[in-house]
């Protein structure tokens, strides 16, 4: 893969991803905050990103999904959970920023972030945005647009190759499947898999870890790590999808498919976080619900012949909702696994 290859975006124009731009940007990056937690810092980061055509986006939070913020009226005794804390943004120049949504609150969205997230441009490259979208919609009323979901793109590629897609692929596996290894992308691989696992275990137990301030540096690195290689992955996946479908159909499918996939949890009444259900079952791909959404689109938005190509027999039946949570919150306010009976 040529790292300087052009990236195609709908509308037929291509933009340069060359190294030269990276050097031009570097001088200004050093003055930008790694974590934007004041309105002034947020505006500097958003101004810096204003000319980008494509960004990688990810979120961190405490038991992220719609959470009790949405459910509390009908379930007033429900434990407070499901808070969106950070929103990370990566650029194709290897930069990564975290926006401290916990500190900035609703105001973050009124200072330009809502326009960025709700616009068709820039394209927002994500990896499984279902819980993030659920939180953004129900906690801040954000209606995402312009998504490119790498996990969904992988599902589509496997379907086009004639394979079953009962389960989605995690980001580490998807990256390594395309030869994107730690150290191969600027800033990707600062943390080892063991360090990442240790942090994951920490916030798995400490429900409020992403809500603590100041954020420890290793948590910041952990949060930024995932957005760094995502744009390289997106280029490779898009190239494969274009080879399979042609440019126009590939873009139609990934655009509408990413939106349908992101809407899946947000459109359900149930919270899909780890405290409300067995979130391990979120790794199943519900082809029935996904295809129903796509079939409801007008043909000018998604050509029906694309639907025929990705249809599989298993799409005829919906999946049951995930079973009960495997975690509970103990008297020390920690989330701990239920004993295995
Ligand atoms: Zn929940």
TrEMBL record:
Q: Please name the InterPro entries in this protein's record.
A: 3'-5'_exonuclease_dom (IPR002562), RNaseH-like_sf (IPR012337), RNaseH_sf (IPR036397)
Q: Where is the 3'-5' exonuclease domain?
A: 33-242
Q: Which domain of life is it from?
A: Eukaryota
Xref: PANTHER family: EGALITARIAN, ISOFORM B
**Name the record gives this protein:** 3'-5' exonuclease domain-containing protein
């Amino acid at each position: 893969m040529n790292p300087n290859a052009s990236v195609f975006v709908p509308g037929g124009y291509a933009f340069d991803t060359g190294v030269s731009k990276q050097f031009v940007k570097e001088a200004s990056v050093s003055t930008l905050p790694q974590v934007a937690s004041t309105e002034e810092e947020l505006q500097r980061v958003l101004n810096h990103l204003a000319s980008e055509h494509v960004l990688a986006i990810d979120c961190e939070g405490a038991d992220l999904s719609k959470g009790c913020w949405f459910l509390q009226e009908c379930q007033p005794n429900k434990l407070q959970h499901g808070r969106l804390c950070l929103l990370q943004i990566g650029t194709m120049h290897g930069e990564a920023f975290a926006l401290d949504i916990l500190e900035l609150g609703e105001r973050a969205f009124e200072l330009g972030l809502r326009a960025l997230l709700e616009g068709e441009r820039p394209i927002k490259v994500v990896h499984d945005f279902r819980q993030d979208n659920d939180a953004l919609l129900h906690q801040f009323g954000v209606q995402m647009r312009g998504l490119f979901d790498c996990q969904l793109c992988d599902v589509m590629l496997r379907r086009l190759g004639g394979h079953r897609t009962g389960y989605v692929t995690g980001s580490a596996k998807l990256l390594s499947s395309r030869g994107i290894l730690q150290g191969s992308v600027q800033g990707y691989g600062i943390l080892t898999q063991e360090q990442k696992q240790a942090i994951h275990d920490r916030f798995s137990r400490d429900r409020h870890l992403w809500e603590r301030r100041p954020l420890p540096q290793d948590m910041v690195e952990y949060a930024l790590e995932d957005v760094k290689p995502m744009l390289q992955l997106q280029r490779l996946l898009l190239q494969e999808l274009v080879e399979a479908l042609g440019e126009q159909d590939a873009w139609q499918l990934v655009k509408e498919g990413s939106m349908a996939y992101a809407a899946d949890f947000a459109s359900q009444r149930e919270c899909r976080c780890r405290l409300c259900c067995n979130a391990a079952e979120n790794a199943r791909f519900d082809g029935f619900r996904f295809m129903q959404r796509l079939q409801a689109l007008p043909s000018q938005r998604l050509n029906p012949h694309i639907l025929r190509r990705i249809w599989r027999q298993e799409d005829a039946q919906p999946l049951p909702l995930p079973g009960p949570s495997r975690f509970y919150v103990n008297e020390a306010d920690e989330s701990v696994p239920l004993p295995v009976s």
